[in-house]
Specification:
The complex is a heterodimer of chains A (313) and B (616). Chain A has 313 residues and is an all-alpha fold. In chain A, 79% of the residues lie in helices and 0% in strands. In chain A, helix 8 packs across helix 9. In chain B, helix 6 packs antiparallel against helix 7 and helix 6 runs antiparallel to helix 11. Classes of the chains: A mainly alpha (313), B alpha/beta (616).
Chain lengths: 313, 616
């Protein structure tokens, strides 16, 4: 198990390094217009050249990357090109917002999917058919469109929860929950649609295993067969889908933050993209990759722990 | 947008099904044909946009802002007075065109790498796999934001990059199928007969992957369309050209003034996505050739079982099933004093033409201290009979007639709880495959202790002591160590001993052993049979030994019943049956199974099914 953990952590680090390099290369492959972009149309050629040199853009790209990487491992993601603020500081305030949405969605969608998936797997028949149709419907509309509908209906028409804005957890617990309700639900609909199908098919697959019949032949109660043995064995494939889901969730959250005006990683990345503030964009992308890697690492570790063959090797 | 695509689920199960005509498959599935028609209609409308509307989608007229639908403006106008209908049909060009570009790029890359990685394997495979794992872990909108920040808004560029990010899905799908196909015989044959690599890949492999790719592309299309319109929705697209995403961005900006603006682009996205999902799912269903069998819930199965009990006569019509040969008289005898008595048992499964019976009126009985061999070839209904006695038929299967009595208790009609309390204590089960019959996630000790506590009400300490004693009794050298092991840590022979220990732990009256030695090595087989004989004597159990092996019967059993096509054709004591088999089928099985005969060049009489594994 120890070597398994180290292997996973190692590949996670390699992934973050490779991803940050790809993003860096993408951004700097087209950097001639950067100085013009910052200084405006009035700037002279000399001013542009000076700015270009100041930002280090004349160095070879690999050098710029290593320079950035050296700072990044010490927690310094550079400075905004426009207002010279520390990118690490700017992003640090944004991470809790995005994490609140993402983790909230994971919790809500997992609970609903497990219940729906198991019920569908056990009872099959018309209930199963109905749930399948409903879950296809959940995939039809993009999350951000559902978010728009929810804002118009729940917030504007019915006035139930605030339409936009974010209340930090430390300020007010109920305010925090209220400000998360609609964003989480608009993301969870699509997540449930995919995940409940996965729980359903994993549960059906385990129910057809030989050992389930043998466990039943020993007179175990249906509850202990289902909740102890079947769920335990259906968990690993479901967790694997959850880790893919989480990556999609980090994408979906960008649009959702926009709809609800939430100050998360996505919205700062979108704003920085609009003006071309490359260090912020790079920082936001890398942080979200790091979050994905950490979550996937956790899921891998849970999966490894659930599997005695991995745990004991 | 938040759903992840799982390539494996898009792959049909059998490779042969994929080789049937794709066109006829689509035509045979009405849902697939209809959704494909809807998609074609929308694409055509988008291409022919200038013919459908006379309005320029980008010309604004503030005086005409936010009008409702009218003969002039079919879907009304937006906040800048532009015609919504023309923006929808023209906007589809960006949304659907961009999505198509991303899909084509993803397919071109993923299919190529998948073909080569799957066909050649090795270092190429593992390095492409590493890259595809990297790409999968990137949150794609974030990467597209980076592209937009550096290169400006260019839908074709960002969709090309997005295509690269989507390629791993196609790669994994194709790679999995190709590495499966590569090992199939017809590909070997093509290689041996000197066909070039490109011909093999093009002819044989591409045909096998075509349908799964189309299915996956349909479902990936939903993701791509969501991301493309998502980017535009963020206001990062080219604002001078309409797309469904930019239209939704306008709806967001004007959310309080004109929430209705979200309606039409949302419907357009919804219709296209629904058509793609339904097309992909119904094509997959058509390819999987799912039998149109509706699985029933247990309650309805019980009801129809009761109904059938009343209607179906317990007596079978033997001649119809025994291949023209009537069963030998005495075939349905249930000895007096049987602790397990089965009379006229029928087991049915739903099929395309109603309930199909796989067990057709089986009667058998076993007394205490007696071992009955239940013999027959694969598919003769032996195992189904065994499962029916235990009340553990797979989903869909049910007892459609007859009676089962164990220790005086009549089983069909018994409540679930009452049946459960009999399992283990009155009737127990030893399965065929030792390794697949232990839960891989739990220690062996736990799997033994759990039923002891439930069925005998033992304390944790007593149950553990009893489990250890049982492991010792079935001849396991180091009970404590096995107790603390997981199933993957022990051998098949040991696993079968563990399963035997579990089966006899609660001292059942009746033991059903379903080919308990078939999966074991020959040396281990003899040991396990010895163990079963000892335990049977010691606990004075009635045993039903399901087997296809007359060696086991001769070795172990007192009486033997021969099954064919869901019926017992002959039943007698082992001595009489071996000395003087009456039924031709019995004679044939015996001749096929006896070792000391001179080898034959052909079977004496035609058999309707090949006999496998009839010999020891």
């Amino acid at each position: 198990m120890i070597s398994y953990i180290f292997r996973r952590i190692g590949s996670g680090i390699a992934l973050v390094a490779a991803a940050s390099f790809i993003v860096f290369a993408l951004m700097l492959a087209n950097s001639e217009h950067v100085a013009r972009n910052i200084l405006g149309d009035q700037a002279s050629v000399e001013q542009l050249a000076a700015k270009q040199a100041e930002l280090g853009l004349n160095d070879p790209m690999i050098l710029q990357y290593l320079h950035w990487l050296l700072g990044a491992v010490q927690g310094d993601l550079g400075q905004s090109w426009f207002n010279a603020e520390s990118v690490s500081y700017l992003l640090a305030t944004r991470v809790p917002v995005t994490l609140s949405i993402a983790v909230g969605t994971v919790i809500i969608s997992t609970v609903i999917s497990v219940v729906v998936g198991i019920v569908a797997a056990l009872y099959r028949g018309w209930l199963d058919k109905l749930l399948q149709v409903v879950s296809v419907a959940g995939l039809v509309f993009p999350g951000f469109w559902l978010a728009l509908v929810l804002v118009v209906k729940v917030s504007i028409d019915w006035g139930l929860v605030p339409a936009t804005g974010y209340t930090p957890f430390g300020e007010s617990l109920s305010g925090w929950l209220l400000s998360l309700t609609l964003p989480v639900f608009s993301l969870a609909i699509g997540a449930v649609a995919g995940l409940s199908q996965q729980v359903r098919s994993a549960t059906i697959a385990v129910l057809e295993m030989d050992y389930v019949r043998t466990l039943r032949s020993r007179g175990l109660s249906e509850a202990s067969v289902l909740f102890r043995h079947v769920l335990r064995n259906a968990a690993p494939p479901t967790l694997t889908v959850m880790s893919l889901n989480f990556i999609a969730l980090m994408s979906g959250a960008v649009m959702i933050e926009r709809v609800f005006a939430l100050p998360g990683l996505g919205s700062i990345a979108v704003d920085a993209t609009g003006v071309g503030d490359i260090p912020i964009v790079v920082g936001a992308v890398v942080i979200s990759v790091v979050i994905v890697v950490i979550v996937n690492l956790l899921i891998d570790l849970i999966n490894g722990w659930l599997n005695p063959k991995v745990r004991l090797s | 947008m938040t759903q992840a695509l799982e390539p494996a689920t898009a792959a049909p199960k059998s490779a042969s099904a994929q080789r049937q005509g794709l066109g006829s498959r689509i035509a045979s599935s009405p849902m697939a044909a209809i959704s494909l028609g809807v998609l074609a209609f929308i694409v055509l409308a988008v291409i022919l946009a200038p013919l459908l509307t006379r309005f320029d989608p980008s010309v604004s007229d503030i005086g005409q802002a936010l009008l409702g639908p009218s003969p002039e403006h079919w879907l009304g106008t937006d906040s800048a007075g532009r015609d919504v209908f023309s923006r929808i049909v023209y906007g589809g060009r960006i949304t659907l065109g961009g999505a198509a570009l991303a899909l084509i790029v993803a397919m071109a890359i993923g299919v190529t790498t998948g073909l080569f990685a799957g066909y050649f394997g090795g270092a190429l495979d593992s390095s492409v796999d590493w890259v595809s794992n990297l790409l999968i872990a990137l949150p794609n909108i974030m990467i597209l934001l980076a592209v937009r920040a550096a290169w400006g808004s260019n839908v074709w560029l960002s969709m090309t990059v997005f295509g690269v990010l989507m390629a791993p899905g196609f790669h994994r799908l194709v790679r999995a199928i190709v590495s499966g196909v590569r090992n199939e015989l017809y590909v070997d044959a093509a290689r041996v007969s000197g066909l070039s690599l490109t011909r093999i890949l093009g002819r044989h492999v591409l045909v096998a992957i075509r349908a799964p790719i189309i299915i996956y592309a349909a479902l990936a299309g939903v993701v791509v369309i969501g991301v493309q319109s998502g980017l535009d929705f963020l206001g990062l697209g080219d604002v001078t050209v309409p797309s469904w995403g930019t239209m939704l961005n306008e709806a967001l900006v004007n959310l309080y003034i004109a929430p209705g603006l979200m309606l039409w682009p949302g419907i357009a996205l919804g219709v296209v996505n629904a058509a793609l999902i339904i097309f992909g799912n119904s094509l997959r269903d058509a390819l999987e050739d799912r039998p149109r069998v509706r699985r029933r819930s247990t309650s309805s199965a019980k009801q129809s079982a009761k109904k059938n009990d009343a209607v179906t006569p317990a007596a079978p019509e033997p001649a119809a099933f025994a291949g023209g040969q009537s069963p030998v008289p005495g075939f349905d005898e249930v000895p007096d004093g049987s602790v397990l008595a089965v009379r006229g048992l029928r087991v049915g499964y739903p099929s395309a033409d109603g309930i199909k019976d796989v067990v057709n009126g089986v009667s058998l009985g076993v007394r205490r201290g007696e071992i009955l061999g239940l013999v027959g070839e694969s598919g003769s209904g032996k195992t189904q009979t065994a499962w029916a006695i235990l009340g553990l038929l797979p989903s869909g299967g049910r007892v459609t007639g007859g009676t089962i009595e164990i220790a005086g208790q009549s089983l069909p009609g018994l409540s679930k709880g009452a049946m459960r309390s009999m399992l283990g204590k009155k009737v127990a089960y030893i399965p065929q495959e030792p390794m697949s019959n232990l839960d891989p996630s739990f220690k062996i000790g736990f799997q033994l202790v759990e039923p002891l506590r439930k069925q005998l009400g033992l304390s944790a300490k007593d149950a553990k002591a009893k489990a250890l004693a049982m492991l010792d009794r079935v001849g396991i050298a180091d009970p404590q160590r096995t107790f603390d092991s997981y199933p993957h840590q022990i051998s098949g022979g040991m696993a079968q001993r563990v399963l035997i220990a579990g089966a006899v732990a609660c001292d059942p009256d009746v033991l059903i052993a379903d080919e308990p030695t078939t999966a074991l090595d020959v040396t281990v087989q003899a040991e396990v049979l010895d163990l079963l004989r000892e335990l049977q004597k010691e606990k004075d159990m009635a045993v039903v030994m399901v087997t296809h092996n007359f060696g086991v019967v001769a070795d172990l059993c007192d009486r033997v019943a021969v099954m064919k096509l869901g019926q017992i054709v002959e039943q007698n004591t082992v001595e009489v049956l071996f000395a003087n088999p009456q039924h031709p089928y019995t004679r044939m099985l015996l001749e096929a199974g006896l070792e000391d005969k001179t080898p034959r060049t052909r079977l004496l009489r035609p058999v309707d099914e090949p006999l496998q594994e009839a010999a020891l």
